[in-house]
Amino acid sequence: MRMSAEERRESVVRAAMVEFARGGYRGTSTEAIARRVGVSQPYLFRLFPNKQAIFEAAAEHCMEETWRVFDRASEGLTGDAACDAMGEAYLNLVEDREQVMMQMQIYVSVFAAESAGDGDIGETARAGWSRLFERIEERIGDRTLATEFMAHGMLINTLVALGFPFEHGLWSAFVELGEKQRQARAGEG
């Protein structure tokens, strides 16, 4: 059975996520993406106008997948309960190193592109990140708590990207910080 163009696009985006996670925007060739999908390079460009469009679609997919994980985990919850459920779900999600590395590559690629005078990738990435934050804020119901949640997520990304094993003391310090913040909020209420 042949795939529809939309199904093929989705397979390109998933493959691109893997390749960009490993090589970044500049270090990933469209040839590698085409090879991973099992299509020709010219066919890729029938689905997407250029490499940047493929990267932007992969970045959007990465952010949307992160939200889907949060949404499923925290459905019907708010406040600390939503935050805890999404945090637990994120710890499970980051076991997929390609998901974390794609997030990190998005940030690095935006920085590199904008340093070279190209702001297009940054606009797309910022829109996706802002949309993710807004959804998290809406779910939690508190802007400060949503900001703390995102800050913890970035720390998790850094620990994972740097290869710290979960047994390392930095992880336990991270867990202790979260517990202290929860206790402080409980004392305020």
Global Rg? 18 Å
Give the ordered list of helices and strands.
HHHHHHHHH
CATH class: Mainly Alpha
Strand-pairing-aware structural class: mainly alpha
Terminal CA distance: 58 Å
> How many E strands?
0
Which percent band covers the strand fraction? under 5%
Largest sheet: none
Name the helicity range.
over 70%
The rough form would be described as elongated
CATH architecture: Orthogonal Bundle
**Named CATH topology:** Tetracycline Repressor, domain 2
Domain HTH tetR-type: 6-66
Pfam family, one: TetR_N
DNA-binding region: 29-48
GO molecular function: DNA-binding transcription factor activity; transcription cis-regulatory region binding
Kindly describe this structure.
Residues 6-66 form the HTH tetR-type domain. Keywords: DNA-binding. Pfam families: TetR_N (PF00440). This is TetR family transcriptional regulator. The chain has 189 residues and is mostly helical. It has one domain (56-188): Tetracycline Repressor, domain 2 (Orthogonal Bundle). 83% of the residues lie in helices and 0% in strands. The chain has helices at residues 5-27, 30-37, 41-47, 51-74, 79-93, 97-115, 120-140, 143-161, 169-188. Helix 1 (5-27) packs across helix 6, helix 4 (51-74) packs across helix 6 (97-115) and helix 6 packs across helix 8 (143-161). 25% of the residues are buried.
